[in-house]
Amino acid sequence: MIRVRKLQRKGEDGVWHSDAYAVEMPDGRLTLRYSLAWEYLGGQYNRLIQERGLSLEQLERVLVGDSLRWLPVETLVTGNEEAIRALDRECHVPRSATAFTGRRDEQPVQTEAITLEAHIVGGRLQLEAPLASPIRARGDHIYLEDGRRLQITLASEQVPGAQH
Amino acid sequence: MPISQRQQLLARFDPVGLDRYGITADDLQCIERYIHILQSGLGEMVWDEAVHIGGPYGTSILIHEIVEIRALQQGGVDPYRCTQEELAHVLADHLLAHVVAIYEEHLYLQDVLFRQYDCRFEVATLVKANRADDTDLNYFLESDIGVFLLEQDRVEEAQMYLEQLKQE
Asked: Does the beta carbon of A21 lie under 8 angstroms from any beta carbon of chain B?
């Protein structure tokens, strides 16, 4: 069960549409999720709401205007992830992707394996990824998209106890 | 807006950045129109901030917008024919246009900071430093646009340089 509050904006055509929403996290903190139309202003309001520790009922304090209106607080009884997915769709918020492959959850599941070639050069592991691969590798490192590196250490050239 | 006024406006920005991204006086009008569609009703617009700040930092905002507009157009979208809601929907469906715009905006900032202050930051570090939340950073890191390293311990330093750049 989650509590949310949608923000509507009146476009140039005079039509109100849902453009962002605030969701109350289990710890009581709010997160503003917004469409890309907000550009970086969405992040500024998100931070402002969090810094001021506002509740859903207090959101008019930061976002108010003739062309903006907060709808009443809603309590959704569907699963949290399911509710957020539906709200994201309604408010045109792009969905996040998995950190490793960049696959978005609306996209079909990729079943093709990601292939890296591994060479041992001068006793060191050299990994190579095809140019079109979502994986980037250099030397014995695979770079993850969140900035971390996955390092594969070559312990020996033979697996202990392996049959030949 | 008369041509002389557009030329005056253009003079507020960094000629190196304008030249690199081929931003003309006509493009300024397009950017203003695009942002107006996107952000009318919000009470403030990134266009106003770009013009107010000007210089290299204001140019980085223009670069973001023009790259996004061109990417949408390449994808067969005419953003000027969209309503606000349609454009928000289109952008969600063309997230790569936004991600490429983030990338070019911060690639340019990376170059400016190197030219002006002789300091170099990873692009992802600049995205983190330049946004008030991690939404754009996550879109960026999650994309297939390339490999980016985030220097978490240098974000504050990057923020300091970006603030300095806003005063240029």
From this structure: no
